[in-house]
Amino acid sequence: DREGARAALAALEAQLGHIDVLINNAGAAESAPFDRTTDALWDRMFAVNVTGAFVLCRALIPGMIARGFGRVVNVASTAGLVGFAYSTAYCASKHAMVGMTRTIALEIARTPVTINCVCPGWVNTRMTDEAIARITAKTGRGEDAARRSLEAMSPQGRMVEPEEVALVVSMLCSDEARGIHGQAIPVDGGQVMR
Q: What pTM does this model have?
């Protein structure tokens, strides 16, 4: 929630002094057919996937600009670049994250602050394990079959490892990445190029 984000930020700034790098990596993924997407599901996806990042960007970017350096990396998803069936709320929230990033980038383009999105595909994490469990429960397919179907979405035929996403995030936070601004960079084994 907004107040919780503000309180956590105030405590962190009291401890560190100031923040020059912001990585918005909170995320939640739930799926439902369009006609069974409830208001509560819609609101949850936007609250977790977009609103917190907005609150933190709005609170921190002005200070970054004033100090002459800042990096913001918003972790979205390939679902922010293309649509996926049965994921209306999730895809909409991740598209909103990409759109917010690009809009802020235009507004702060002449400052020393950069803002970008990293858009992972299926990453070998607990969140993906939970998605596989939901697929298995809804379809009756075995876990191995469900995992293979997700891996097959990538031309590389595999899931991305967390370290691969972290490498791109780390690079975007560096001074050398100052020319990368307002971008949505897929880390997906080629999934969105299909």
A: 0.92
